[in-house]
Structures are given as structure tokens and as C-alpha cells.
Design goal:
two-stranded antiparallel ribbon; 5 helices; alpha/beta
Length: about 130
């Protein structure tokens, strides 16, 4: 499988020309970087595999991190769908996920639980339950 990532900095015209040449060569999987919203609109019309907007994505991730200090933000899968890691509040301990009604009360799906256990020698071991 051949795939190409095109990221030419501020030379957007060169970016577009390169994308078109790659499509003419038969490259099916092409990723391209955008730095402005107008560039995203243009690239969407070119029917490439995925548009990368790293500055915007990282800025959004950083803002979420600042607003939610207790949350370890991991990734955004789709608009408004996030994978995050949060500490379990004390009031949640010794209760099941069903008892807590997390989905209905908070509109959150729990996909895993991470536990830290201490070994007899003092080492910490992380266990994941999916």
C-alpha cells in the first residue's frame, strides 16, 4: 500500500499542485496539511483521504487540558467524541457502573478501568480492565 503525506508549510499552491500530480499518478491514499480554514475547504473538494490541521487540533487539545485539570485528555475521535482518562471520585468507589448510571446522568461511556496495585516490594503495577 502506498500512501503520501503532503505538508509543504506555507506554500499552499505547491501543495495543491503536488496533490494533483499524485492523484494523476494513481496514489489513492493522500494526507495533506492545512493551516487555514479556507485551505480545508479547498482540500475537501480535492477528495483526498484526510486533511490534517495540526495547529488547530493541538490548540483545541491544549484548551481542553487547561479547562479540565483533572482530566488526562487522550484523543478526539470525531467532533465532540473524546477518549479521556479521569480519576474516580471518592463517591463512586464501591459502586458498579450500572449503579452510578454514568451513561444516563453524564452522557459518558466507560470503556475501561485502570487500577494501580502495589507489589510487596513497593513497585506499582497498572492493570487495565476493558
Amino acid at each position: 500500500m502506498i500512501f503520501v503525506i503532503v505538508s509543504m508549510g506555507d506554500a499552499f499552491e505547491s501543495n495543491i499542485l503536488t496533490l494533483e500530480i499524485l492523484k494523476e499518478m494513481g496514489v489513492k491514499t493522500i494526507y495533506s496539511r492545512a493551516t487555514k480554514d479556507i485551505q480545508v475547504k479547498i482540500l475537501e473538494k480535492m477528495d483526498i483521504t484526510e486533511i490534517l490541521f495540526p495547529e488547530k487540533q493541538e490548540g483545541r487539545r491544549f484548551a481542553l487540558k487547561l479547562l479540565n485539570r483533572d482530566i488526562r485528555f487522550i484523543d478526539e475521535f470525531a467532533p465532540d467524541i473524546y477518549l479521556i482518562e479521569v480519576p474516580v471520585p471518592e463517591k463512586f468507589t464501591r459502586k458498579s457502573i450500572l449503579e452510578l448510571e454514568i451513561r444516563s446522568k453524564y452522557n459518558v461511556n466507560v470503556i475501561g478501568l485502570k487500577m494501580v496495585e502495589k507489589e510487596s516490594d513497593g513497585r506499582e503495577i497498572q492493570k487495565m480492565i476493558m
